[in-house]
Amino acid sequence: MDDTSPLPSETEPVLSVIDDGLCEAAEAQARDLAAMQAVATAAQAPMLRFYRCRPAVLLGRHQWPEKELRLDYCRDQGIAVVRRQSGGGALYTDEGQLAWSLILPRAPGDGGPNLAKLLERACRAVAEGLARLGVETRFKAPNDLEVAGRKLAGCHVAVEPGAVLLHGTVLLSADVERMLHALRVPTEKLSPKGLDGARRRLVTLAELLGGPPPVAAVRDALVAGMSGVFELVPQAARADIAARPAPVAEPAAANDAVALPEGEEVAESFWASGGGLLRARLSFDAGRTRIARVALGGDVTVHPADLLDRLARWLEGHPVGELRPRLAAFFAAEEVELLGFGPQDLAQVLQRALARLDEQRAFGIAPGQANSLMVHGPEEFTAEEIARRASVMLVPYCAKMPACKWRRRNRCTECGLCEVGDAYRLARERGLRVISINNYEHLCRTLDELKRDGVEAYLGMCCSQFYVKRNRAFREAGIPAVLMDVSGANCYELHQEEQAYAGTFEAKSELDIPLLERIVAAGGERTL
After folding, report:
1. Average pLDDT in the 478-483 region?
2. Half-sphere exposure of 128 toward its Cβ, with a 13 Å CA cutoff?
3. How far is CA 113 from CA 138, 161, 251, 337, 401, in A?
4. How does residue 527 score in pLDDT terms, banded at 50, 70 and 90?
5. What angle do CA 126, 215, 142 make, to 5 degrees?
6. Nearest-5° angle of CA 394, CA 400, CA 404?
7. CA atoms within 13 A on the CB side of 51
8. What mean pLDDT is predicted for residues 314-342?
9. Whole-model pTM?
10. Most buried among 154, 175, 266, 499, using CB within 10 Å?
11. Which domains does the chain have, with CATH numbers?
12. Whole-angstrom distance, CA of residue 311 vs CA of residue 368
């Protein structure tokens, strides 16, 4: 299917429109799958479905639930957790969002689906529909619509043999507090000020139109936008049960059956690619010379949809030294689409997981400790090499005692009341310059100064969520680093990212001093 011919020539350009009303998220996803099967076999004309879900989190096809969601909160609050057919990140949805699914046939000779163009086209259709309501939006690649920089709608894509599913949501209203509680890596805190910050990142039709719009009016506007952009003739919207595709059992989603459990014996890594976060877990044979099992995941979109699962199986059972050639052979033989990233990103996340073995040996640490490291820099710089070259140590202010008068100052008296004093002592004994990072802007300024001063490498501590979200700052500095994940009170887990960004986070994080001791010791002594 290309951008101008969404339908096989022998199919009449009729669009069947169905309104399922309020339903359970699992039922909605099952009906999407049934519709894809019906459209693929020509048993059903192209279909546009509308529905609203009772509270649920829609997990991206390749995501690992324990990494993305607060599962205990979802369970306690009766928020369903359902895996989508499409890739991308987790979404919270409820009655305040109008969801839509457009299912189109895809002929065998259509070639690659061009995921980016499909998403752009779907967003354009939604935008044209919203314009009929007097709401002008801007497309933000790859899959969002914004009004003055605030998100109003988003789209996702899934491609299966014979059919394409384009689906998304439009915010009629938004329960921001519940959304941020359900998602494990929120973008704002939950204090009143933080909720206001999150609301500033989202916008609803109710806000834009001065009140909640009739759902039918929004639906009809989207029907007009979809039918115009995809050149289809819509039938009248139907809500009768006979018109709906019968739900079928949801298939096992990629990685559900094969994702390795977290544990001390698993080598784990992540990599922030241009198309989203990639994750890898590896286990090895008894001699640690062969890869026993592989799990790949993340909030990415790929085609074919089972690509990550098949790549994982392709790598299993082979010597660790064959990882790169096996990876190259896989992509040489496969026709794939990776939205916003490439095979080199998969090589990065796998190689970083494999490097956990070297880090365990170099620092004399357990697998779980190695998994907590974030090694930043070119591949030729191992963690051990970075530790040797490091001349600076960056310490987060949030690891200091909340009442300490030095909490937001670039100093520590090594009073012994928190682990920061131990970090300062280790740095002093090694001859490292210590800098307490007080907020995100201070981090950016510090990295710029280190780069200007020709610093070869540094050691540091931060939470993994911060590293993922602010990865661009670390990359642009271009300085190799070994960063250690913090534990205890975490601004992301406590929903206080905005406070941490500004340097007003009041809780205390914890540093792994035994791990830091090992890394500092591996670097040897240094003279200032």
Report:
1. 95
2. 13
3. 24, 11, 22, 8, 54
4. very low
5. 25
6. 130
7. 23
8. 95
9. 0.87
10. 154
11. 14-239 (3.30.930.10), 256-357 (3.30.390.50), 372-528 (3.40.50)
12. 25
